[in-house]
Specification:
Order of helices and strands: HHHHHHHHHHHHHHHHH
Low-confidence stretches: 2-23
Strand content: under 5%
Largest sheet: none
Number of helices: 17
Radius of gyration: 19 Å
Mean pLDDT: 91
Distance between the termini: 29 Å
């Protein structure tokens, strides 16, 4: 599993205010640095799109041992992908305000050590998922990790404004992994949820990228808000948000949910649409961040996805 919300961790500091040379870093600094390489706040959201799908697939409460194995394996897999991403992006991380305090720019961890750490996490994750879950889930996690690293990080991120649109596919795999962990096979309900996360990722990420558009422009990463007017970003945000809400409602007929899920999807979708249209309206009138307030949508989008998947988990418990 790799990141849905990679942008969420990019908004958070992962170290102290001042660079700390590796020779002066204490044990606590080093441990914190390695943990920071995995981008824990990204993993939180990934797990929130994995475990609820396991409840949905089990039509109740899945086996505790299976949940633990899937969570541990998924956490290590996502941590591996994020650590390797940090290694590859260390040159631009040193220049961007929100990432310059990560472990590699601060020289607490060397690139070689970070790479070894990331590879080790990936091998361990694959072994855990293969042995205690199943090979299909292990393969999907490995595919997501490879896609995030090779397709998004190395190929798309620095070359196209569509970077997060297609690169975001990597963060959709937890829905498939949660389902296959329980059933051992793929089906249409997790594909619908996969597409919900796929459509949700661009507006979520672009809202954050609006806030840090100068950072992206400064390192020549063509994230849409760095190369397009705010009003165009707002328009794209609205289009993707509508697509996200419509796709979320498809789970009702496709997955045969009870009454709770569609109610949750409609209410949350309405809130998300109001905020997306609000951002577009503000962006049409001004290009100033203080007026656009993109972080409002960013935080609402986090809440939207979290509560939507809580609805996915709780719905079968009420049937």
């Amino acid at each position: 599993m790799t990141h849905v919300g990679h942008s969420r961790a990019e908004a958070a500091a992962t170290g102290g205010d001042e660079p700390v040379a590796g020779s002066r870093a204490g044990v606590r600094d080093v441990i914190a640095a390695y943990v920071g390489l995995t981008k824990p706040r990204v993993i939180e959201l990934l797990l929130l799109t994995t475990v609820p799908v396991m409840f949905f697939a089990a039509e109740g409460i899945p086996r505790l041992g299976l949940v633990i194995a899937t969570v541990v394996g998924g956490t290590l897999s996502a941590g591996s992908a994020n650590a390797l991403n940090c290694v590859y992006d260390r040159d631009i991380d040193e220049q961007m305000r929100r990432t310059r305090r990560r472990a590699l720019p601060r020289h607490i961890v060397s690139p070689g050590a970070a790479m070894a750490f990331g590879v080790a996490l990936g091998v361990l994750a694959t072994a855990i998922l293969a042995i205690w879950v199943n090979w299909l889930s292990a393969g999907l996690a490995l595919l997501a990790e490879a896609f995030y690293l090779f397709v998004y990080t190395m190929l798309l991120k620095r070359r196209t404004t569509q970077n997060i649109v297609w690169g975001g596919l990597a963060g959709c795999f937890p829905a498939l992994i949660g389902w296959t962990a329980v059933t051992g096979e793929l089906a249409w309900p997790p594909v619908v949820l996969f597409l919900v996360v796929f459509l949700w990722t661009p507006p979520h990420t672009w809202a954050l990228a609006l806030r840090y558009r100068e950072d992206y422009a400064g390192v020549d990463v063509p994230m849409l808000p760095a190369v397009a007017p705010a009003r165009e970003v707002g328009r794209q945000v609205v289009l993707y948000t509508w697509a996200t809400v419509v796709m979320s409602l498809l789970l009702w007929p496709v997955g045969g949910t009870g009454w709770l899920y569609p109610v949750v999807a409609v209410v949350l979708g309405a809130v998300m649409l109001v905020e997306a249209h609000g951002l577009w309206r503000r962006a049409r009138g001004s290009d100033e961040l203080s007026v656009i307030q993109p972080m409002r949508l960013f935080h609402v989008s986090n809440l939207y996805l979290a509560l939507l998947f809580v609805g996915v988990a709780v719905d079968p418990l009420l049937r």
